[in-house]
Amino acid sequence: MNYICFDLEGPLSPQDNAYELMSLFPQGGQVFEVISRYDDLLALEGREDYEPGDTLALIIPFLVCHGISEDDIRRLAEKASVVEGAHELITGLKEWQVFCISTSYEQYARRIVQRVGIPQDNLACTRFALNQYRNMAKKEDLAKVEGMEREILSMNREDDEGIKSRLNLFFWNELPETSLGPALDEVKAMGGQRKVASLSRFATENTCALGDWIVVGDSITDFKMLQAVHEAGGLAIAFNANEYALPYATMGLASTNLGDLRVVLDAWEKGGKASVEEVVRERERAGGKGDREHFHWLCGQEDLEEVLSVHKRIRGVVRKQAAKLG
Fold first, then answer.
1. What is the CA radius of gyration of the chain?
2. 52 and 149 in one domain?
3. 102: Cβ contacts below 8 Å, ≥ 6 apart
4. How far is CA 163 from the centre of its chain?
5. Which of 62, 170, 237, 280 is most buried, taking the most CB atoms under 10 A from its CB?
């Protein structure tokens, strides 16, 4: 049996669910972009008990303030597009166990994996009782959130220190004293080391090691999972990746069609990592075809600038507005 695990947002669906959710209210997308940048800053500085993707906890007060519900998340999942070739690739993997570990809220992730053909039992994602937090919120606390929202909209987005200073105060000093404070403690986004823990659990349940896996990711929430599998001797694939994920991958594929991965998976079945390297290097020499089939073997490659430029370009084609988020 072969094992592969996909991130959801990027490899399977181009949208950023949290961004789309915040965009349901006026200027919500702008608020999200600032909080997403703050999330990147905290993750990069290694804040204790903070993982990439914990943005999904930080935006809860704003979702509650604007009356967003769990049904809104489900509706977004119904409308969301799927990356070209994803359904065909996954449903065609007959001798494989296919998994998904996603930072996305459960109401979104469950529907997307269903649409691409991944079993619900093979999904790990962010548990989220949004309606419960709506019922807990007090009017005076929502007024504080409205005030913070106005401050965020007036912030200089280039001022990382200013953003971090003010949002540190709000999220870790002011918000915990309100009725919305419990949300920060209870919602643990499935990102960073939590993805590694979920993958390790799946591996244990299937009596295999991390080195037996292929993982596919694209962003800051995936880099620890990519790194763990790569270092264990497995295959870590960066798909239309950004600068946070690419350095931790074994190989890269930039393409508008996930089906281009099939040649890699066939090689893995035939001869493991050595066969994959042979195929990828051959495809790399041949070069990509327009917006497809840009393969790169990344092991031992220190200068990733040219590779990153290809990934960023095609990432922009596939993910559009979401491409600029961490």
1. 20
2. yes
3. 7, 8, 9, 109, 112, 113, 123, 124, 125, 126, 190
4. 23
5. 237
Count how many residues are written for the chain. Answer: 326
Contact assessment for residue 89 and residue 118, using Cβ atoms and an 8 Å cutoff: no
**Owning domain of residue 167:** 17-76+128-186
HSE-up of residue 312 (Cα within 13 Å, Cβ side) = 12
For the chain, how many structural domains are there in total?
2
**Domain identity same for 53 and 159:** yes
Q: What is the pLDDT of residues 72-105, one digit of tens each?
A: 999 999 999 999 999 999 999 999 999 999 999 9
Same domain, 101 and 141: no
Distances (CA, A) of 128 to 39, 104, 180, 287: 18, 10, 14, 43
Residues 276 and 132 in one domain: no
pLDDT value of position 303: 92
CATH number at residue 117: 3.40.50.1000
Residues 218 and 231 in one domain: yes
In the predicted structure, residue 322 carries a pLDDT above the cut 60: no
Predicted pLDDT of residue 300: 86
Going through 157-232 in order, the beta strands assigned E by DSSP cover: 213-217
CA nearest to 225, candidates 208, 205, 241, 249: 249
What is the average pLDDT score of the chain? 95
Task: Reply yes or no on whether the pLDDT at 321 is more than 80.
Answer: no
CATH number (domain holding residue 140): 1.10.3870.10
**Residue 326: is its pLDDT beyond 80?**
no
The order of strands in the sheet holding 2-6 is 123-126, 96-105, 2-6, 213-217, 235-239, 251-254, 294-297
User: φ and ψ at 257, to 5 degrees?
Assistant: -130, 115
